[in-house]
Amino acid sequence: MRVRLGELSERLAGEFVGDPELTVTRIGPLDSADRETISFLANPRYQSQLAGSAAGCIIVGPGLREAAAARGATIVCDDPYLAFARLTQWWAGQSRARPEPGIHPTAVVEAGARIDAAASIGPMAFVGRGARIAAGAVIAAQSHVGAGAMVGEGTVLEPRVVLGEGCRIGARGLVHSGAVIGADGFGFAPTEGRWEKIEQLGSVVIGDDVEVGANTCIDRGALEDTVIEDGVKLDNLIQIGHNVHIGAHCAFAGCVGVAGSARIGRHCTAGGGAMILGHLEIVDHVHITAATVVSRSIRKPGQYSGSFPFDDNASWEKNAATLRQLHTLRERLRALERKRSFSEE
Amino acid sequence: MRVRLGELSERLAGEFVGDPELTVTRIGPLDSADRETISFLANPRYQSQLAGSAAGCIIVGPGLREAAAARGATIVCDDPYLAFARLTQWWAGQSRARPEPGIHPTAVVEAGARIDAAASIGPMAFVGRGARIAAGAVIAAQSHVGAGAMVGEGTVLEPRVVLGEGCRIGARGLVHSGAVIGADGFGFAPTEGRWEKIEQLGSVVIGDDVEVGANTCIDRGALEDTVIEDGVKLDNLIQIGHNVHIGAHCAFAGCVGVAGSARIGRHCTAGGGAMILGHLEIVDHVHITAATVVSRSIRKPGQYSGSFPFDDNASWEKNAATLRQLHTLRERLRALERKRSFSEE
Amino acid sequence: MRVRLGELSERLAGEFVGDPELTVTRIGPLDSADRETISFLANPRYQSQLAGSAAGCIIVGPGLREAAAARGATIVCDDPYLAFARLTQWWAGQSRARPEPGIHPTAVVEAGARIDAAASIGPMAFVGRGARIAAGAVIAAQSHVGAGAMVGEGTVLEPRVVLGEGCRIGARGLVHSGAVIGADGFGFAPTEGRWEKIEQLGSVVIGDDVEVGANTCIDRGALEDTVIEDGVKLDNLIQIGHNVHIGAHCAFAGCVGVAGSARIGRHCTAGGGAMILGHLEIVDHVHITAATVVSRSIRKPGQYSGSFPFDDNASWEKNAATLRQLHTLRERLRALERKRSFSEE
C-alpha cells in the first residue's frame, strides 16, 4: 500500500510540514524506519532519536514541530500517540479484507438463531438456537456462539472463540481466538470430603467496545451475571471468575486473575500476572503493578504493588532465608531497643 | 420456570415452614431477592441479612429456623449450603436442554470408534479411531476426542475441548471449553546447546466426577501416565505437568500451575495462581493459599502461604529495596547484639 | 510393540552387554520396570537404584557399565539421557500413525492456498487464502491457518491450533492444541479516559525446531514482528507479548509471561510462572527461577530468583506483616547503630 503524506495528514487532522506528494508504504518505529516509512515520536524525552531517523515522515506533538521539520516531512498533532493509533486503524481498514456478509455453507446454524443479513458467519462456525448476531458482526471460522447468546453490532469473534449459552457481548467488541466466555464459575459445596457442584445459573454480560484476549476466560455467574462494562480491555490468558464486576475502561495485561465476586471500579489497570482475590472491592482509578497479589479491598485510588524483588540467585537465597525469620528479627531488634533505653536511664 | 415451594422443600428433604402453595421463579442471593426468589443463608454470621431480604423463601439451617420463619416461608435443612447446591442442580436439570443422543451429521467419526447409542456427538466434533464414548456422554460441538481415547458414562465435553489420543476420563465428568487434555509433557534432553525432544509416551488418566476448567491443560506423562483421581475439581487456566498425580477430591482455583512429577495427596486445595514445583510430594489435607510458590515437599497437613503483601507503591518500593539487603540487616543486628553482650560483661 | 535389545543398541549407537536376542515391549522408569521394560539411568547419584530394578535392560553412561552389567542386559552410551530421548523418538515413530498426506474432505481450504502434496490437512481444518503448507506438514483436525500464513516442512499443528493471518513457522516445529499464534498485541492509546485501539500490523515469525505448548499465546507485533528464533521450546499457557524477541534455544516452562518488546538472548530458561516485564533486555545464558518477576534488564549470565519463600500460614502471616514495616525496621536498626557508636566514643 502506497499513501500520499498529504492524505495521511488530512486524515489525522494534523498540520503538515513538507512535500505532501511524498509517499510512504509502511508504518514503523523510528529506529528501523526508512524513506518509505511513516513514524511517530510521542515522548519528548526521546527527541534525540529524531535527527538519526531515516523516516520519510514523523508524527510529532506541537513542542517538537521545529526539531522534526528540520529533518524532513512532519505531521504535527496535539496527541501524536493517539494520532498514531488512528493511523494504524485507518491502515488496517485499508489493507485488511473484511469478511463478506453471509453464512458460510459449512457453518452450522441452529433453528431459531437470528442472524442479521449484514453479519458474517465463517466456515465451520456454530450458532445455537435462539442466538442473535447483529449487523456487521463477524463470527469467524470455527467459533461457537451458544444457544440464546447475543453478539452486538460490528463485534468480531476471531477464529475458535466460545461465547457460551445465553451470554451477551455489545457493539464494536473484539474477542480473540481461544477465549472462552461463559464457562461455569468454580463453585462447590463441600460435603463429607467431596465437592457437590453448584450449578452456575447466571450468565456473562459484556458491554460495548470491549476487547477480550486470546485464551482468556470469563466465567458465568453463579446466580446473577458476571459483568464487564463498556470499553474494558483484557489481554491474553486472563481469568475472570464468576460474579466479578469490572467497571468501564479498565485494562488488564496478560495472565491476570480475578477471583469470584471481586468488584472492580472504573479506569483501573492491572499489570501482567497480577492476582486479585475474591469478594473484595477496588475503587475507580486503582493501578495494580504486575505480579501483585491484591488480597484485600482497595478504597483509595493510586498505584499498588507487591512483588518480591528479584536478584541473582545467591543473594535471593540469603535474603529469602532471612525473610523466613523476619518476625524474630523484629523481636531481637525490639529487645535491643529496650536494653538501650534501660541503659540510657 | 415457576415452582411450588412445597415441591422444592420435598426435593431438598427439608422441613417447610409457611404456605407450600407459594411459588418462586428464580434462585438468587439474599440482598437482591424479591418475592419470586428462593434464597439461602448458610453462614449464621450473616443472620442480620435475614430480616431485610424480600426473598419469597429462604433455606436456612436449624439454628436460624425461628429467625427465618418470623419473616416468611422457610426451608430448614441440616446443611443449607449443600441444599442450595442440590437446588441449583435440580434447577439446571429442569431448565437446561440436554443434547439429544446421536451423532450430528457434521461430526467426523473415524472407523473403529465405539459410540454408545445413548451418547451425543455434536456438530463438527471429531472422534478418532478406536475411541470409546459411553452412554449419556456428550461430546459437544467442535470438540475433539483423539484415537483410542475413552469418555465415561454421562461425562460432558463442552464445545471445543481436546481429549488427546489414548487419554481417559471416567464417569460424570465435566470438561469446559478450551481444555486440552493430553498435550505433550515438557521434556527435553540438552545436547550441545540444543534441546532434544523426549517423546511423551504416557497418557492422562482421569477418574470419575472430575471437573476440568476452561483452557486448563493436563499433559500426558513421559513414560507413565499423568493421573487425576476421582472427584478432583480444577478451575480455569490451570497447568498440570506430565506425570503429576493429584489425589482424590482436590480442588484447585484458577491459574494454578503444577510442575512435572509432583505428587499431591487427597483433599488438598490450592488458591488462585499458586505454583507447585516439580518432583515434590504433598500429603493429604494440605491447603495452599493463593499465589503461593510451593518449592519443596509438604509433609504435614495444614495451611501454607507465601505471597508478598501488597501495599501502596511508595511503601512497597521502600520495603522491597530494604528486602534486597535483608541479609546484611541481619548481620548488622547480630553485630549490635554481640557488642551489647560484650558491653554487659 | 516388541523390540530386540540388539536392534535398540544399534539404533542408539551404544555398546551392548548381554543377550541381544532378548526383547522389551515398553520404555519405563527404573522403579516400576519389569523384564519387558527398557529403562535408563542418567545421573550416577542414583546408582543405588540399579541393583533393585527389574528392568530387562538399562541404558547407562560409561561410568556405570560394570555396575549395570552385573545385573543384566545393558546399553552403554556416552550420554544416556540423550540416548533415552532418541529412544523415545524412535519408539514414537514406530508406534504412532503419521497422518496420511492429503486434504480431508471436510477441511475448508480457500482459493489461493498452496498445500504441498505431501502435507496433511485434517478433518474440519481451515487454511486461508494465500497460505502455504510445506511438505510433510500436518494441520490436524479443527486447526486454523490464516490467510497468507506459512507452515514449514514437517511442522505439526496439533488439533485446534490457530496460526493467524500472515504468521510463519519454520520446519520441524510442533504446536500443541489450543495455542494461538498471531492474536493482536495489547496496545491502546489512552484518550479522555478511554482506550483507543492501536491496530497490530506486525506478524509472528517462528524459526525451525520450535515447540509451542498447549493454550500458549504468541501475539503479533504492533509494527514489526514478534520473533521466536530456532530451537525455542515453550511449555503450556505461556503468554508472549507483541514485539518480543526470544533468542535461539530458550526453554520456558508453563505459565510464564513475557510482556511486550522484551528482548531475550539465546539459551535462556525460565521456570514455571516466571513473569518477564516489557521493554527490557536479557543477555544469553540467563536462567530465571520459577515464579520470579524480572522487572529490569539482566546484563550478566547466571541464575536469577525472586519468589516469596512459603511457610505454614501462621509463620507467613507474622513475617509478611513485619515485611510491610521492613523499612522502618531498617531505620530503627540504623538509629541503634548510631547511638551505639556515640556511646563508644
Q: What is this structure's SSE topology?
A:
3 copies of one chain form a homotrimer.
Chain A: E1 3-4, H1 5-11, E2 15-17, E3 23-24, E4 26-27, E5 37-40, H2 48-52, E6 57-60, H3 65-69, E7 74-76, H4 80-95, E8 102-103, E9 108-109, E10 114-115, E11 120-121, E12 126-127, E13 132-133, E14 138-139, E15 144-145, E16 150-151, E17 156-157, E18 162-163, E19 168-169, E20 174-175, E21 180-181, E22 188-191, E23 194-197, E24 204-206, E25 211-212, E26 217-218, E27 226-228, E28 233-234, E29 239-240, E30 245-246, E31 251-252, E32 257-258, E33 263-264, E34 269-270, E35 275-276, E36 281-282, E37 286-288, E38 293-294, E39 302-305, E40 311-312, H5 313-323, H6 326-344
Parallel strand pairs in A: 4-5, 5-6, 6-7, 8-11, 9-12, 10-13, 11-14, 12-15, 13-16, 14-17, 15-18, 16-19, 17-20, 18-21, 19-24, 20-25, 21-26, 24-27, 25-28, 26-29, 27-30, 28-31, 29-32, 30-33, 31-34, 32-35, 33-36, 34-37, 35-38, 37-39
Antiparallel strand pairs in A: 1-3, 2-7, 22-23
